[in-house]
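Q: Structure tokens for this one, please.
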Amino acid sequence: MSYGTGRPAVLKDDESIHECRLLLQHPLAIEDDMRLVSTVELMAIRESVNNALSPMEGPVRDDHFLRLREADDEFGNWYTTWDHAFSQKYEDAGETAPKHSCVATHCGLAFYRQSLQIQHYHAELFHKATALRGINGPDDVQKMPLVQRQLALRSIQVARQGLDVTVNSPAYREGMKYGT
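A: Here is the predicted structure, written as tokens:
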């Protein structure tokens, strides 16, 4: 919620979250703890990206674009790691799509794995949007440097993928009935 309201994140990458995967080995761990741990790890990545892109005012600098490329790799590695973990845990999940290549409704993804995809898309889209600040109209679009234009096009692609899962997946819609 802090990202959505422009406030600093409460979660910090410190000893309170290091090795949080150990929670999954605890005898009282439940299946949903995988979602908790994966989300904590994603939030730690997002916090690092957010800090590198700060302050959120002023022009977008070249180092912002570099950090976003690095973040894409981090988000992708996070997704691959956890998608594999969820695929091992949920036998009914079927085969997942290669990163960014499949219409989710045709890949047999279970709700948890689709939720993981949505988290990935949202993190990538949110942080890319910070590097699109100052683009307010057609004139600004015409003046965009190539790196920013590519980022905008990738943002559109990611948004479409997220909407596709959200709108077209019966399993995801069914699972969202129980969300907050």
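A few notes: The mean pLDDT is 83. Residues 49 and 71 are 7 Å apart (CA to CA).
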